[in-house]
Structures are given as structure tokens and as C-alpha cells.
Amino acid sequence: MSEPEIAAVPTSPPSKAATDSPGDQAKELTKSPKSFSASFSIWPPSQRTRDAVVKRLIETLSNPSVLSKRYGTVPQDEAAEAARLIEEEAYSFAASKANADDDGIEILQLYSREISKRTLETVKAKAAPDSTAENGSSSPAASATIKEETPSVEES
Fold it and tell me: Pfam families recorded for this chain (predicted)?
């Protein structure tokens, strides 16, 4: 039993490629990828993206969140300063690790991890002095405990 033949019925006017000879079509196909080859890189992020990161960091540090439940919130002005510093340091660190052969994904991940790490360090550092102040002392040295005097046993 033979396969039925299916005839292609054009529904629109033939394109330039359909009217060209097979050799012309092959040339067109080899040219097409070049016209669509666009360079796409996600590193470095644009200034607009970096500004959005800083804005989000300010919100994270100064508004109630999972992080603030554990470490407390940071006042808006301190959060703005800390956010800019966190982003700049993370960007500098990631940029120093970037190379021309990379597509940017690994560097962007490094940038993101650095921001997270530095954010956590910032809220922990802010929470440490606050927790000692709540205990009635301003520093760990000020909360020295008084030891009971116990008689020492001398060996003979």
C-alpha cells in the first residue's frame, strides 16, 4: 500500500524564499543566523537594576519581615546607608571575579550571594549591640559577673 500524497496549498502569496532557487534558499539560511545573533549578557547589571536592588534592600532592612522578627528593623536612614554600602561592596567583589569568557550567570549568582551574606551580617551586627542594651549593659565587658570565692585546695 502506498502513502497518499499531500499537496501543499498556498494560502498567502509566495515569499521571496519560496520563489528563489534551492541554492538561493541555502544562502539565505546561512545568512539568517548572523542577522539574529545578538549579544546577551546579564553581567554587569545596569545602573537601574543596581538602584532597584538598593531600594529593595532598604525595604528589607527597615520594614517588618522574617529577618526583622529575628534581628529587628533598621531605621530608614541607617537602612539607606547600609543598603548602598552592601550593594557597592557586593558589586565590587563580584566584578573582581568576572572574566570575559563568562556569560554572567555565575557572577550574578555570586553578586546575589554576597548581597545576602552582607545583609545578614549587617542585621546581626545591628542586633548585637541592641540585645546587650536590652540586658541593661552597653557592652559585654560591662556585664562582668562576680565570681564566688571558693577555698582553693592546695596539693601537698
Answer: WPP (PF13943)
